[in-house]
Structure formats: C-alpha cells, structure tokens
Write a structure and sequence with these properties.
The complex is a heterodimer.
Chain A lengths: L2 H13 L5 H13 L1 H18 L8 H49 L11 H36 L1
Helix pairs in contact in A: 1-2, 1-3, 2-3, 4-5
Chain B lengths: L8 H15 L3 H23 L2 H18 L9 H20 L17 H4 L7 H19 L3 H12 L4 H8 L3 H21 L8
Helix pairs in contact in B: 1-2, 2-3, 2-4, 2-7, 3-4, 4-8, 7-9, 8-9
The chains are: A mainly alpha, B mainly alpha.
Chain lengths: 157, 204
C-alpha cells in the first residue's frame, strides 16, 4: 500500500478526531502536497460535523420518575434482604453457640464438670465431640432447609 | 442539552461520590445518577434498538441492574463504562430475543425523535439556514438508522457522546484497533448512503 493510500484510509478517522499525534503529523505533512487528499478530508468534515449536532432524544419525565420509583423499591428490597440475611447469620451462630455451650453447662449443673479433667478424660472428650458434631449437623440441616426455601421464594418473585 | 456528552473531570468525581453513596443505600445518590445520565443513556439505547418503547423499557432495566450490581462494581473501572456496558448487554439480549435479524439488517424509514429545543432556530440562523440544517440532520439520522447496530453504536458513542476510542473499547469489550476499524467503516457506509441519495453527487 502506497503512502498516499495509507493516508487516505486515515482521513475519516481524522474527521472523527481519533488519530494519534504521530498519525496527525503524518496526515498534515501529506496534505500539504496532496490536493486530492485535502479534498477528501474536506468531504468528511460536514458529515462529522452534522453527526456531532444530531438532536439528542430525551426520555420523558414520566420515564425518569417511573425508573426512579422502581429502582428505589429494588434498593429498599435489597436492603431488607441484606438485613434479614445478617439477622439469620446471628441467630444461627447463637443457636450453635448455645448447643455447644449446653454440654459443659449441663456437666457443671449435674456436678460432673470435674470429669472433664478427671481420669476418664478421653471418654468425656469423645462424648463432647460427638455432641458438638450433632449440633453442627442440626445447624447444617437447618441451613440447607432455609436455602431451599429461599430459592423457592426467589423463583416465585 | 444538559448531560448529553461525556462528563468532565469534576463530573466524574461527583459520579464516583454518588456511586459510593449508592453502595450505602442512599436514595438521593441514585436520583442524582439517573438525572445525570438520563439523556446519554436513553439516546444510546434508542440508537441501538431504534424503537422508543423498547429503549424506555431497557432504560428502566439498566437502572434496576445498576442497583442490583452496585455492590460488585469494580472501583478501578469508571461508572460510565459499567453503565453503558450493562445497557449494551441488555439491548443485545433484547434484540437477539425479539428481532435477531435487526442486529445485522438496516431498518427502513426510521427517524430519531427530537426535542422542542432542537426545533427552535438559533439567533444567527435565517429560516432558510434552519430549514436546510434540519433537512441535513434528518437525512443523516435516517442514513445512520440504516446502518448495522455496531456501526450505529460506534458513531453515537464517538460523535454524540464524545467518548474517546479507549472508552468505546471498554464499553464494547473489543480492542482499540477494532473500534477504529468499525468507526472508519461506519463513516464510509454512512457517506455512501448519503451520496446514494444524490445520484452520484457528493453530500455536502
């Protein structure tokens, strides 16, 4: 491709003001000695200039108001969902904490707290671990049930 | 026409502040963003789908999607790019679903709506100048509406929205070289369409 053809390809982009500074220099230099390219650039200018002056269609005030109302409702709904999620996390964490804490408390109340450090130490800790695992399992089942229910609600919404 | 082109540096800073406030659930920030972007976003959607009723529906959907995704917005990427990308994706999904052929084929007899302010002649124009200017704009609007979607898109983003090539590349998710090539081809096709109206003459 000759230098002339390369510059000619850049003229539409020159009218769109999108040339790099190196390309701009190249084009300016070429235009000084090429009448055909100068005319070609002059043909692009009115098109570019009219495109810049096209009327801007505007949305109706009704549309803006309706959009804001829907978006605000969505924002409130999301804030409420986030709040519910946090409350649920706290409640589940509290339930687990109570489950785990109930073992040493029940041992303490029944006067067998000392057995945690006594000779049947390993036996006591195996029971404690089993009790804790049961608590986690119950919590896990509750979380799965809640997740399934939430998914169902989202599908209905 | 307030807010019809890309924002200044001050405007961008204000937008960033509004985005931060919106993340915290501030409803006023949402109203400010919608007001600031309403003309640019609506124009962009209308250029893509060409039907005002569809552009209106997509306008609402875009803002609902903004609210839905505001928490995951990447702070390093400007809001303009995110907003226009969301709008673009929704418009393309809509066109694929409703009129898949419209992503390629031109639409006949389509014109762009204009505002009352646009119809008022400026003080330094004679009625004849105004009539000629209006005619030229109608011609260019019609010729533009006849181009394929990607060409209409690049023309509106560059000339009406005054986005830089790099910003257009961000919105359309293509390399800068592709944007430049689309821009050149869209201008060539537009010029060809305009000149075809004048049986071999030059559109000036």
């Amino acid at each position: 491709m000759s230098e002339h053809d390369k510059i000619r390809e850049l003229l539409a982009l020159a009218a769109a003001d999108t040339l790099t500074s190196a390309e701009e220099k190249q084009v300016a230099e070429h235009l000084r000695s090429c009448g055909a390219c100068s005319n070609e650039l002059a043909a692009w200018q009115p098109i570019a200039s009219e495109l810049r002056r096209l009327p801007t269609p505007q949305p109706s005030s009704w549309l803006v108001r309706a959009t804001l109302a829907r978006a605000e409702a969505k924002l409130s709904e999301q804030a409420e969902q986030e709040w519910n999620r946090r409350v649920m996390i706290v409640v589940v964490a509290l339930a687990w904490l109570l489950t785990i804490a109930s073992w040493p408390v029940s041992q303490f109340v029944s006067g067998r707290f000392g057995s945690l450090l006594g000779p049947k130490f390993s036996h006591t800790w195996i029971s404690f671990a089993a009790f804790t695992a049961l608590g986690w399992l119950a919590g896990g089942v509750a979380a799965v049930v809640l997740a399934i229910r939430q998914r169902g609600e989202r599908r209905l919404a | 026409m307030v807010g019809a082109t890309a924002l200044t540096l001050e405007g961008l800073v204000a937008v960033d502040a509004d985005v931060v406030r919106l993340r915290r659930g501030d409803l006023n920030a949402l109203a400010e963003l919608v007001t600031r972007y309403q003309n640019r976003l609506y124009r962009y959607l209308l250029r893509l789908v060409r039907q005002p009723a569809e552009a209106e529906d997509l306008f609402q959907q875009t803002w609902l999607r903004v609210v839905e995704k505001i928490g995951s917005f990447d702070a390093s990427r400007n809001f303009d790019a995110r907003l226009f990308t969301l709008a673009r994706n929704l418009a393309i999904d809509h066109l694929r679903r409703i009129r898949p052929e419209s992503l390629d084929e031109p639409l006949a007899n389509s014109s762009h709506s204009e505002t009352v302010a646009d119809r008022i002649p400026s003080k330094d124009q004679t009625p004849l100048d105004h009539a000629l200017a209006t005619e030229r704009r109608t011609e260019i609007s019609e010729a533009m509406a006849g181009l394929t979607m990607v060409y209409r898109e690049v023309l509106t983003l560059r000339f009406e929205d005054e986005m830089k090539i790099e910003e257009i590349a961000q919105v359309t998710a293509v390399p800068v070289s592709t944007v430049k090539s689309r821009l050149r081809r869209s201008l060539e096709q537009l010029r060809y369409a305009l000149e075809a109206r004048y049986s071999g003459g030059t559109w000036q």
